[in-house]
Write a sequence for this structure.
């Protein structure tokens, strides 16, 4: 078994509940790049946008990989473009972080809110800026072989 296959199996096992029942919402594999922007917080007043590579999406959240280090409970704004132009902005919260053996991190984020984004820009709406100051961040990282 290759290291990548092993990591995929461990990822599936980790995502299962202790009673063996898979998550409440089905996930669909998605391989797309999306722009993400962190909400401002202490020590990060002017966040820059960066790209992430999505792995899966469900009704309540998305999984992606990135070389950037994010924190548990950190809020992100994900820009979802439409082919026709414009798109949607999605406020999300980092729920878990797993360090990958070949570098980078695997994240799971939960959707919290969404707004139409007719201009396609990744500016953060004012009502979401207030939420950023309330977050209690954690630097918890699950090991690449963690199965909880």
């Amino acid at each position: 078994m290759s290291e990548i296959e092993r990591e995929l199996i461990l990822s599936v096992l980790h995502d299962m509940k202790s009673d063996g029942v898979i998550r409440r919402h089905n996930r669909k594999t998605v391989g797309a790049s999306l722009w993400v922007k962190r909400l401002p917080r202490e020590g990060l007043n002017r966040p820059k946008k960066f790209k992430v590579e999505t792995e899966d999406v469900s009704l309540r959240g998305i999984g992606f990989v990135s070389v950037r280090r994010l924190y548990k409970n950190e809020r992100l704004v994900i820009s979802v473009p439409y082919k026709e132009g414009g798109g949607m902005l999605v406020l999300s919260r980092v729920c878990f972080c797993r360090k990958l053996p070949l570098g980078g991190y695997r994240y799971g984020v939960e959707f919290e809110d969404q707004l139409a984004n007719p201009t396609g820009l990744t500016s953060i709406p004012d009502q979401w800026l207030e939420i950023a100051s309330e977050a209690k961040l954690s630097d918890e990282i699950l090991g690449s072989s963690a199965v909880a």
Helices lie at 3-15, 126-132.
